[in-house]
């Protein structure tokens, strides 16, 4: 089946080329403002999308070809280099690679993005290639080419960007290798002595090492440069200590403090406060605790400001026990200096909004000056605590303290109220808060965590057109600011767009962002796509379009998920699409992604359900050529069932004899399928009787499913008397009495109306109660006569 998703979209994803809709005015888009109209919404309010089907042979317009997204700057030539090195073909020219390497960092100096493992690998390979070429073929390309990469300015910019960019954990090792190579070239190969590297480059390099798990290496370099660095402000030691704190290395922290004491610098209260607050602001609570507990020079106590900061952070991180001694030490300070954190402490110990209001009245009655110290930050702390513990009702109650105390909500309070409404899933309240926040301009929505949570909530209601418009207008500035969106947020947006039947918009959303997520993030997004494809309430064409996107955007999708997708198309009676999914698995080179025995078995089971003889032959031939899959009884069971369903009982009987001669032998699923084959086989009656006789002679228990299958085989062969006798003897043969399902299956198996009438007349006389149950079930007309609906003897292959 030809996908309804534009081939232009698929080609763009495959080639990693930019893409935007040329015809739809309102489209979810990743394209930066410079490349699109300023008044274009990011999400369309229309469910029906207009799509352009461009022939693959027609080139894109020059204007569209020339657009390069900021996230993709420089990537294509570096990707071509890796491909050419792998294929041992001609590599891209030096000037092209040098420009690509430079463009990558110039773009990210202006707008930082996430560094992925794939990007880090491209950069380190390109750097080493250019470095080797610079050493061996400097004159060949000319000095101007190498200045693009190896000038002091370019090298320093690389270190600056690497120190500022967010690096995924899986990309960290290669990113550090690149930074070391650049710093080494800057300090040695460029003619500088080690002590004359530019100060910003030194700071950037040490910060990069320290914040990426290598504080020991940063410590080493700081010792080398200490003669120059001892006068720097802020002290570079804070960076080193921050790195050790993030590794919870208390021994090294104490050694550094002792070393600073010997050097006459010390670890004063100001540095202690600055470093602790820095770690709190970065959300690294354990590291902040580690630094706070470090001794301060001259046995000084921590400042009041840092005490209040760690108490608040401890409350928000549910670490009250640790903060209790610190809070008790505040008793030496007057209440007018600690009232805000004292109110927060009361809330953390279970006090409600009314309790806190009463407490304030008591304090003010004792000291009227405290009334002037009640500020919005006091209320904000309380709402922030309620949000931290996920109690939206408590947050709403705390927010009512502001008007009670005569306080006007500021932007921070509006944001906290919005977060509380997001936690509660209060769509109406959240939209109202968003309107209030619009008064503060674009600066209102800078909190990445809140924005991501808000988008996720809005997307959960996004199938409604009016909410969809709200999502559209809100996302426009979010995308323009290049705010980092979480994988769960992207997954929510993908789900919303899929259920609005806009797969092309999903592709435009994913293309520039998928590379910035680690495997776990990609898994979240992939899960949404797979769930949509398997949703039987969705139109088959939309499900197939979504599968086409999954196939290209998520090549790592495993066999199990692909098998489930294949099965879902079989259940939709689209054997052609299911077998295409199977064929895609067969095309993989990696063994882990190729069909397993279970995949073949389920494929044959699906083909049996749809009686697809054409694809049965195709898949069977694939099985014959697949040397990695050993035939087992489960596969052969499915193959036998498929051939029987496709009216090839002789072939099915051959497979049954193959099972009998195999080392594994038949399973209990094999026998019901065998009797199913007997229903159509020219000698089916004799084969069925022989098998049942053998089972009795071997004293093997014939379970209800097997015995009922035997009755069906007799009925299908019009051996009514034998089948009726088998039903009458069922209790004595297998110890189980016949049920209405037994009679119904017998009736369904018998061909032609006049024989069915005989079965009905017999059942009414012999089993009137069972037949009364069947009469309440709908009968549907088929070519071979009426059948009871919903009665089946299912076979699990």
TrEMBL record:
Superkingdom of source: Eukaryota
InterPro entries in the record: PPR_rpt, TPR-like_helical_dom_sf
GO terms for cellular component: mitochondrion
Any one GO MF annotation of this record: mRNA binding
Pfam families noted in UniProt: PPR
Gene3D superfamilies per record: Tetratricopeptide repeat domain
GO biological process terms on file: mitochondrial gene expression
Name listed for the protein in its UniProt record: Uncharacterized protein
Native source organism of the sequence: Aspergillus sclerotialis
